[in-house]
Design goal:
disordered N terminus, alpha/beta, four-stranded mixed sheet, single chain
Length: 457
């Protein structure tokens, strides 16, 4: 559900459409809305415009219902929903209406967002005009509304250090307590590795995250005394695991001050402060190599396509000959547009400046900067399961989440987690672990037939 539109341009189009509608509301074959009846009421009329998928129902503030026993029911709670949607027709306008509470969903939000059930959100000019007609027919006064304050637009040069810091600050400003509710005790904000889809429970999530950390350490060949750099270390769980279970000396870096504070506390609580150092530092500022191994887990989406050569070049410089790099990042499928539309819901509300790169380009760029790629693993289904677990955590702690971040922000994250789950389920997004080595005079040091998966520790 990606829509490449400029909201300002849509606002202008809607204003023109509204003005022209006041002058002449008829169109060839469509009749005059003042004479039009709405059989089934507002709910049925909107359903018809949006494609009326059989798995989705509608209910509206005028009391009308259309297939209200469906698995997912869209509730039009306020006339302002029309103004929100028509100000940016498609994904962004619908998201604004949902975040603001003018639009709601009862039942299974994931069903609504899955592509095979999804509404037609790519509104063409005719659909826009029909929505304007319905609004006017039911007495709705279309008006300009301020965008929800949860929406952000960044300033400055894209992927400069200053703008990247601002993007990260926006993403993590919901606070450590909110992330603890969503992620569980491991505080790990990346794809887990599951042995059984039936284990998607809070307890199962913790075990699956530990399995992922073991997988990373085994791929990197982590051993006692090894110096490991964890780029984008989050709240420090991988660093703690590598130190406690494998005896590594770990440097973890993140540019989120909130993460640094909590990660340092967690390191002390785990009793590995003598082995783990957490820094508030941009990877581009690192100067104290070489490291024996480098992990980058779940931060690659923030790098930016134009920064790939610099990113991998920096990591190559920081790695000793014979050292390994594991890059774990979300990617777009070949031939598809980047799913993070800067003017879409995720680009405006969750991941400003986030970019997804096709894995073939990732591998080519790694090798052009000197690495030899040794292993590729697609964990797409694992991420769909992880997102389901996070969404379940959020729902089970909903009242507490609302108390921490407010209703609008909590609704933003509910929508985000469900949308991402649908994307990974259907192959619209992927996630890969790419293992590479900095050769030592032609020697890789990688086992001839590696078996990465050992016991979960």
């Amino acid at each position: 559900m990606t829509l490449r539109t400029d909201p300002k341009r849509h606002d202008e189009q809607v204003a023109k459409s509204s003005n022209s509608t006041r002058r002449s509301v008829s169109a060839p074959g469509l009749g005059d809305p003042s004479d039009e009846e709405l059989p089934g009421g507002l709910a049925a009329a909107v359903a018809a415009v949006l494609g009326d998928p059989p798995e989705v129902g509608f209910r509206a503030y005028d009391g009308s219902n259309h297939r209200s026993d469906a698995a997912a029911v869209i509730v039009i709670k306020s006339p302002d929903a029309f103004s929100r949607i028509l100000s940016a027709p498609g994904q962004l306008g619908a998201a604004r209406a949902y975040v603001a509470g003018d639009l709601d969903v009862e039942g299974d939000l994931l069903t609504l967002l899955q592509r095979r059930h999804a509404l037609s959100l790519r509104l063409d000019p005719l659909a826009i005009w029909r929505l304007v007609r319905i609004a006017r027919r039911t007495g709705v006064r279309l008006r300009y509304l301020k965008t929800p304050p949860q929406e952000v637009r960044l300033r400055g040069r894209r992927h400069s250090k200053r703008r990247d810091a601002e993007a990260i600050r926006h993403h993590y400003e919901v606070g450590n307590d909110f992330y603890r509710l969503m992620l569980g005790p491991t505080m790990t904000y990346s794809c887990a590795v599951w042995s059984d889809p039936g284990l998607v429970t809070p307890r199962g999530l913790d075990a699956a995250q530990r399995a992922k950390h073991d997988l990373v350490c085994q791929k990197l060949g982590v051993r006692p005394g090894m110096r490991l750099l964890d780029v984008g270390c989050g709240w420090g769980e991988l660093a703690i695991h590598a130190a406690r279970q494998y005896g590594a000396q770990v440097v973890g870096v993140t540019i989120s001050e909130a993460q640094v504070e909590r990660a340092r506390a967690r390191v002390r609580e785990a009793g590995v402060a003598n082995l783990v150092e957490i820094r508030c530092q941009d990877y581009r500022e690192l100067r104290d190599g070489p490291f024996d191994a480098i992990s980058s887990i779940g931060m690659f989406e923030h790098v930016g396509q134009r920064q790939l050569r610099r990113y991998f070049g920096t990591l190559f410089r920081l790695l000793r000959p014979g050292g390994r790099l594991l890059n774990h990042g979300i990617a777009r499928p070949p031939g598809s547009a980047a799913p993070i539309d800067p003017n879409g819901f995720i680009g405006r509300y969750i991941f400003p400046d986030g970019e997804l790169v096709e894995v073939g380009e990732v591998i080519s760029t790694m090798q052009r900067t000197g690495f030899e790629v040794r292993d590729l693993e697609n964990l797409r289904e694992h991420y769909a399961l992880t997102l389901r677990a996070w969404l379940a955590n959020l729902e089970s702690h909903w009242d507490e989440a609302v108390e921490i971040v407010g209703l609008a922000r909590a609704r933003t994250w509910r929508l985000y987690l469900a949308a991402c789950t649908a994307g990974f389920d259907e192959g619209l997004t992927q996630v890969h672990q790419v293992l590479a080595v900095k050769l030592d005079d032609g020697i890789s040091g990688v086992p001839l037939r590696p078996c990465w998966r050992g016991p979960v520790r």
